[in-house]
Design goal:
Blueprint: E1 5-10, H1 14-25, E2 30-36, H2 40-49, E3 54-56, H3 59-64, E4 70-73, H4 80-89, E5 93-96, H5 104-117, E6 121-123, H6 131-141, E7 148-156, H7 166-169, H8 177-193, E8 197-205, E9 217-224, E10 229-235, E11 244-249, E12 252-257, E13 267-272, E14 275-279, H9 286-298, H10 308-327, E15 331-332
Parallel strand pairs: 1-2, 1-4, 2-3, 4-5, 5-6, 7-10
Antiparallel strand pairs: 7-11, 8-9, 8-15, 9-10, 11-12, 12-13, 13-14
The structure holds NADPH dihydro-nicotinamide-adenine-dinucleotide phosphate.
NADPH dihydro-nicotinamide-adenine-dinucleotide phosphate (NDP) binds at residues 11-15, 37-39, 42, 74-77, 97-98, 124, 126, 163, 165, 180, 262.
């Protein structure tokens, strides 16, 4: 039986507006009761335009509302930790945006706080929910490409003008393409391969959009604990590349196009001794699926699509890529 879940939004954000409010409302019995913004006028306008009953600028009052059972944290990255700790202390389940935090210690504290409060913590790594990636995972697990040897992720996109703010100019808010996109690549590859990243090398670029110390492009190579090497290309500055992901193994290759995206789209080709086959995929909304798994986890049925621990581990990889790019050195991923 589906249980109802009443939500408070922490952050009047674009991602809430574009995807997550609808995904919450797509779950039977789920409703959004209130939204927190630091700006009373923006919060009220956000609430009005999304048919949310109330808005507040006071985190304590949102968390003190006994009707709110779960919160969606989608503020800028430096705020995730403090807001998640406060939510856990108030006994609210937490769906938190990625990167979970700005550093590993903070992310680990969030996981520990939610565990000791007995609330669910999920990280909104949406790509695991894509029908394409779930199909690729099945193909790999069924041996369709033999032993996986190499992965290649094509995630160089153009940051839309309405998002050209803190991601490009504010390191204190966790800007830069590595924290924004590389952590998604890391999470997706960890999911596809059922493996963890051991080490990273990387070079980054500041081309035309980012300022200060922030990068707007990066190329990295990761080594996984099953031996796989994966190459990543992430950017905010590339208009026409298209996205994709490839997996190459001893017996075959998977070539997926348009799969590093928020939208339920993309195609998969499998090439092996039998020739080239188009793999059928039944697309579904990634965020709706994430919210389904979150609801089930709250009801005691299984884990969220990406747990708090997944958020920690995928962040750890992004931090290693960041350090590798800054130092020019090969960096061992630190998970503790
Ligand atoms: P936004 O810039 O849209 O929102 C972040 C904060 O900026 C909001 O909480 C809000 O503060 C403030 N803000 C929003 N609009 C305005 C405005 N017009 N003027 C001034 N301030 C404004 O960020 P995103 O939605 O792009 O990202 C939020 C989080 O979600 C990040 O952690 C990001 O990494 C993650 N994200 C995840 C995605 C995914 O698919 N998993 C995709 C996109 C982002 P306030 O709340 O105080 O009003």
């Amino acid at each position: 039986m589906d249980q109802s879940l009443r939500w408070g939004l922490i952050g009047a954000s674009t991602i809430a507006r574009e995807w997550v409010i609808d995904a919450i409302r797509a779950q039977p019995g789920n409703e959004v009761l209130t939204v927190l913004s630091t700006d009373a006028k923006r919060g009220a306008e956000f609430a009005r335009s999304h048919r949310i009953a109330s808005s507040t600028t006071d985190l304590r009052s949102l968390l003190g509302d006994p009707n709110v059972q779960a919160v969606y944290v989608s503020t800028t990255n430096e705020l995730h930790k403090q807001q998640t700790l406060a939510a856990a202390a108030a006994g609210k389940h937490v769906l938190c945006e990625k990167p979970l935090a700005m550093n590993l210690t903070d992310a680990r504290d969030m996981v520990a706080a939610c565990a000791s409060a007995g609330v669910v913590l999920a990280t909104n790594h949406h790509l695991r929910n894509a029908a394409t990636h779930r199909r690729i995972r099945e193909l790999i697990r069924s041996g369709a490409i033999g032993k996986p040897l190499f992965g290649r992720v094509f995630h160089a996109v153009y940051l839309p003008p309405h998002l050209q703010g803190w991601r490009l100019h504010n390191p204190e808010a966790g800007g830069g393409v590595i924290l924004d996109i590389t952590c998604h690549d890391a999470d997706t590859l960890r999911f596809l391969l059922d493996a963890e990243v051991l080490e990273a090398v990387a070079l980054s670029q500041q081309a035309e959009l980012a300022s200060g110390q922030l990068e707007d492009g990066v190329m990295a190579v990761l080594r996984f604990d099953n031996g796989v090497l994966a190459q990543l290309h992430d950017a905010f500055t590339v208009k026409h590349a298209g996205t994709g992901l490839e997996m190459h193994g001893t017996e075959g290759s998977i070539v997926a196009r348009n799969v590093m995206t928020q939208r339920p789209i993309g195609d998969i080709l499998l090439r092996n001794a039998g020739g080239e086959t188009s793999v059928p995929v039944e697309h579904e909304n990634l965020y709706v699926r994430a919210l389904q798994a979150f609801n089930a986890a709250v009801a005691g049925r299984g884990q969220p699509s990406a747990s708090g621990e997944d958020g920690v581990r995928s962040l750890a990889v992004a931090l290693a890529v960041q350090e590798a790019a800054r130092t020019g050195k090969r960096v061992t991923v630190q998970y503790q």
